[in-house]
Design brief:
Layout (H helix, E strand, L loop, with lengths): L1 H20 L23 E6 L3 E4 H6 L20 E5 L5 E8 L6 E4 L8 E4 L7 E9 L2 E10 L1
Antiparallel strand pairs: 1-8, 2-7, 3-6, 3-8, 4-5, 4-7
Length: 152
C-alpha cells in the first residue's frame, strides 16, 4: 500500500513545485537576449501534433503568459491583454477554449465554435472577468495550428 502511494506523492510534489514557479505578476522589460523565445505577439503560433484528441495549453507550450502582452523593452508593466485574434493555419478544424477570471483561483472557460482552416476568431475574457489566463487549442487527431493575427 505504501509503495503504491509513493508515485502519487512524487507527482503531487512535482506539480506543486511547477505551480509555484509560475509567477502571478506581469513581466517587465529587459534586453532582447533576456526575453523568452515564446511570447504573445502577432505572428506567434500555437500548435498540436498528437495522434489522439487533446487540449493543448497555448500559454504553457507556445505563447507564454497571455495575461499581458509586451513588445520590445518596457520600464513599466506590460499592458493587460484584452483580446487576441487567431487564424486557423492548420489543416483541421479546431476549437479554442478561453480561460479567464478576475481573482486568484477563479477560472471560467468559454469554448469557441469550430474554426475551419483559414478562418479567424477573436478570444477575450468572459464578460466581467479581468484577465485572459490561457487559450487552449482543442483539436482531434493529427496536426493543428493557430496563428496570432492581432493582440490588444
Amino acid at each position: 500500500m505504501r509503495t503504491a502511494l509513493l508515485p502519487v506523492a512524487l507527482v503531487t510534489a512535482a506539480l506543486g513545485v511547477s505551480a509555484v514557479s509560475c509567477a502571478d505578476a506581469p513581466r517587465h522589460g529587459g534586453t532582447a537576449a533576456e526575453a523568452p523565445a515564446e511570447d504573445l505577439r502577432v505572428g506567434a503560433v500555437c500548435s498540436s501534433h498528437f495522434a489522439f484528441a487533446t487540449d493543448v495549453s497555448c500559454g504553457l507550450v507556445d505563447l507564454g503568459d497571455v495575461r499581458f502582452h509586451c513588445s520590445g523593452t518596457h520600464d513599466d508593466p506590460c499592458p493587460r491583454t484584452h483580446s487576441v485574434t487567431f487564424e486557423n493555419i492548420g489543416r483541421t478544424s479546431v476549437r479554442l477554449v478561453t480561460v479567464s477570471g478576475s481573482a486568484p483561483g477563479e477560472r471560467h472557460e468559454t469554448v469557441s465554435r469550430p474554426l475551419r482552416t483559414g478562418a479567424r476568431t477573436v478570444v477575450a475574457p468572459r464578460a466581467g472577468d479581468r484577465y485572459l489566463y490561457d487559450v487552449l487549442l482543442r483539436a482531434g487527431t493529427g496536426s493543428a495550428a493557430v496563428g496570432v493575427v492581432a493582440v490588444s
